[in-house]
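User: Before I run my own analysis I want an independent prediction to cross-check against. Here's the chain; please return only the structure tokens and, at the end, one sentence I can use as a sanity check.
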Amino acid sequence: MTRDSNANDTDEGPLGFTHHDHDACVSETLSAAEARCAAQGLRFTPVRRKVLEILLQEHRALGAYTILDRLREGGFGSQPPVAYRALDFLVANGLAHKIERLNAFIACAHPSHSHTPAFMICRLCDAVAETQSSPARGALGDAARATGFRIERTVVEAEGVCPACIDKADA
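Assistant: Structure tokens:
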């Protein structure tokens, strides 16, 4: 993928705070989603595709009602279940993530492979950058193994200030 000059397919850096070819980012992610759904026999319906496209328009988490408004503008229905069903599908299949702190959703920055995401959220502008984490290999993983606990899911969200807002934070 050509999202940023430091990325490669197995160890992509955080996407969201870096400059990149956004049009290529959107088209490549949509293509990867289509390919993944086809390979797994999943129905990538027009509504699901449109919701992913809406999420890809900005590297910022969007709430379900914002997504619903944009679906309505695109002629896709106006009932909340329309957006929630599409979001549930995208999250369940690793094409989007829920940002718990914001109760909002963001397109997956690394849809071509499974991973454990970690998110950096700007407290000033709500921009979100996704990177990969390995909680099972760090201190949390050590603690889990020591107690016989099996980690099934983690949510790593760090709040701070993005590069675009750093001057505002110091003012």
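Sanity check: The longest helix spans residues 22-40.
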